Amino acid sequence: MSKILVTGGTGFIGSHTVVELYNAGYDVVIVDDFSNSNPKILKQIEAITGRVPEFVELDLCDELKVKAFVDANTDISGVIHFAAFKAVGESVQQPLKYYRNNFYSLINVINGFNSKVNLVFSSSCTVYGQPDVLPVTEAAPVKKAESPYGNTKQIAEEILQESCAVTPEMNVIALRYFNPVGAHDSALIGELPIGVPQNLIPFITQSAIGKRGPITVYGNDYDTPDGSAIRDYIHVVDLAKAHVAAIQRLESKKAESNYEVFNLGTGTGTTVLQVIEAFEKATGEKLSYTIGARREGDIEKVWGDVTKSANDLGWKAERDINVMMSSAWNWEKYLKDNPF
Ligand code: WQD
């Protein structure tokens, strides 16, 4: 049974991917430092899968410890690298924290395996900035990032592409996520924002459950059907399944290139106000919101062309916005009765 290293495996997307790897018959070892996640997630993964995840608490910025870990785990056949800081706003206030953590960890993982590794990298549609053409394809130009967070994703892709160009034994797939939302249908794992949620869906669910006040819609003067900004929201379980498909592609060695990029979205754009309406329809909960000013650094509209993922990964998102909303709400209600 192939064993996959999942760095950041107790995080939002990481934990859902561990579940799908088990479902697909893989063995898993999780490495995390709990800098942006909760140790209880390990128990939750066990409750869902019946498997006790192999786990090592490790700071991936520590080069010697990463090398020692890899040398002691010679049965790892692939890596899914989630471990990174990801708060756009925080990255603007603390750029060095983001550049140090996101690059040291990635480079230490590559070096730990002496660059001989099948690696799936967690990237983001943020590398496109505001695309000139929609839906945006993987061939679209990468634009100057609006934040240090986005810049770490762009530069990480360059590090991987340039490393692959000179190391045939290194095989990489970079997955550009659109907006990951929702939760596992068991409601035992989901998004665990620390502090006031910056992202729309966790703010909506916390507002609906009474933890937060009304939602502020950041701008309704965009060139969109209702004036609010458009994003391509994708269910986290669909996203997790795409990571399994990416590992399988790397193992199949079908790719012509040892560095590939794929969009992970639904191909459908949804405005903020449409999300609010979908949440109310899916849950029966009434939301209160106000219209505020645009948020610094936000783009107007983006949704992905997911043809390449369908053709080459054999993957397509299956869950619609209603399932995204109802699963996020079920998770918020679970958290109320079972605080972490
Ligand atoms: C979505 C839309 C906001 C909150 C970022 C990163 C991306 C990924 C997800 C890590 C926007 C609007 C939000 C609120 C609002 N990061 N909004 N009121 O900014 O598209 O993407 O987070 O995985 O890489 O770029 O996501 O959820 O913050 O915002 O109106 O209280 O909701 O303006 O239009 P974003 P988001």
Shape: globular
Bound ligands: UDP-4-deoxy-4-formamido-beta-L-arabinopyranose
**CATH domain class name of the domain at 3-181 and 234-265 and 303-308:** Alpha Beta
State the helicity in percent bands.
40-55%
CATH architecture of the domain at 3-181 and 234-265 and 303-308: 3-Layer(aba) Sandwich
Low-confidence stretches: none
What class, by secondary structure content?
Answer: alpha/beta
With strands numbered from the N-terminus, the spatial order across the biggest sheet is 3-2-1-4-5-6-11
**Average pLDDT:** 97
Pathway: Carbohydrate metabolism; galactose metabolism
Subunit structure: Homodimer.
Cofactor: NAD(+)
Protein name: UDP-glucose 4-epimerase
Quick summary:
The protein has helices at residues 12-23, 40-49, 63-72, 88-93, 95-112, 148-166, 200-208, 236-252, 272-283, 307-313, 321-337; strands at residues 3-7, 27-32, 54-57, 76-81, 118-124, 171-177, 179-181, 215-218, 230-231, 233-235, 259-264, 270-271, 289-292. By secondary structure, it is an alpha/beta fold.
